[in-house]
Amino acid sequence: xxxxxxxxxxxxxxxxxxxxxxxxxxxxxxxxxxxxxxxxxxxxxxxxxxxxxxxxxxxxxxxxxxxxxxxxxxxxxxxxxxxxxxxxxxxxxxxxxxxxxxxxxxxxxxxxxxxxxxxxxxxxxxxxxxxxxxxxxxxxxxxxxxxxxxxxxxxxxxxxxxxxxxxxxxxxxxxxxxxxxxxxxxxxxxxxxxxxxxxxxxxxxxxxxxxxxxxxxxxxxxxxxxxxxxxxxxxxxxxxxxxxxxxxxxxxxxxxxxxxxxxxxxxxxxxxxxxxxxxxxxxxxxxxxxxxxxxxxxxxxxxxxxxxxxxxxxxxxxxxxxxxxxxxxxxxxxxxxxxxxxxxxxxxxxxxxxxxxxxxxxxxxxxxxxxxxxxxxxxxxxxxxxxxxxxxxxxxxxxxxxxxxxxxxxxxxxxxxxxxxxxxxxxxxxxxxxxxxxxxxxxxxxxxxxxxxxxxxxxxxxxxxxxxxxxxxxxxxxxxxxxxx
Length: 485
What we know:
Strand order of the largest sheet: 4-3-2-1-8
CATH superfamily of the largest domain: P-loop containing nucleotide triphosphate hydrolases
Largest sheet: 5 strands, antiparallel
Strand content: 5-15%
Helix content: 40-55%
């Protein structure tokens, strides 16, 4: 093989049946150009010009994305796309191998040709309307990677989860990583911007600049963001689109399932938070994505911010109180320059007030946790609102039996109450803990603070606290008698 200098100065690099024309950024398989995106070409060029050498993942990322912050999952997705495009592994031919714990290496023989030049104008950059991402996505590599692998196999995936958990962030990241896969582009439609007089289907078709007839052959990904705003209309539009366009894939975000045929659900959990027992060690705390996000956003506000040993307990407790919700953590970290850590922790006792200074450029529901929860609460029926308020007396996980014993009333018969509680869980306002003889429900602390404020306004708070205390006392006495027996 020619020297590295020869490879670096060559116009064309040949390997297997392929010719990589560097100046034209074009790969030909005979006379046929391979469809490949810019980043994939950058990665391939780095590997081919260093053929036979192991390139560390960190070095590869630094060379390909010199001015951006990206996750390793991004590199892995592009490597996988490269392998598919080159037929890596087919007919026994290998090009790119992963060296565990080290990086990647291009192992096929490479020869250079400095004379040949090809001009080709047919390749285009990926088609999309995705917004520019300003910050890295924290703690979602595994989830995003799984969705990237899943989407090409599914017609419809609905991303669900609580308010502020980052459903849109996850979906947008997945869409970014699939830009090279969908021949006819990746398109986002934010349904929160659609007014009540506009047809969801018409709005989608205008965004994609087409009609149902033209969709029949399009290989594209449609991201329907914030389907909660028009859930019934969105459900009907999705059914129509899936039937009319067999090569169309849909990625939706919604706080509950759309209940459409072929739908696959992907729940987005809160970010990982440390146990209180690990709150003395910076290394252990920084191993959790909620703490990583807090520190990253705090550093964006205060460039000299760093997590000190004496601050670990405070930061861990803040992340725990915020349930590991990315939106809540970002809103809290935005106050670091005004309140400092001690002041921020003190303000956490005042409910959601401290979580109300989001970016002015953000959509209204992302400017405060109050707004994010208002949006969900206002779409509940009067009975659902009342049940959510009453359940706020439970500070810990609770069983359906406990809920029936404490919050039932003449207007909320046990059978009806059980249905409403299950419905609140389906709407991501309660989380469900499976296991044991009976499932247990839990309300996130941010949701509980919100519901508790509504309960206090209703005037039922004191009486429900008494009923809750009597129930706990009765259970403890019953457990004691049982233990003695």
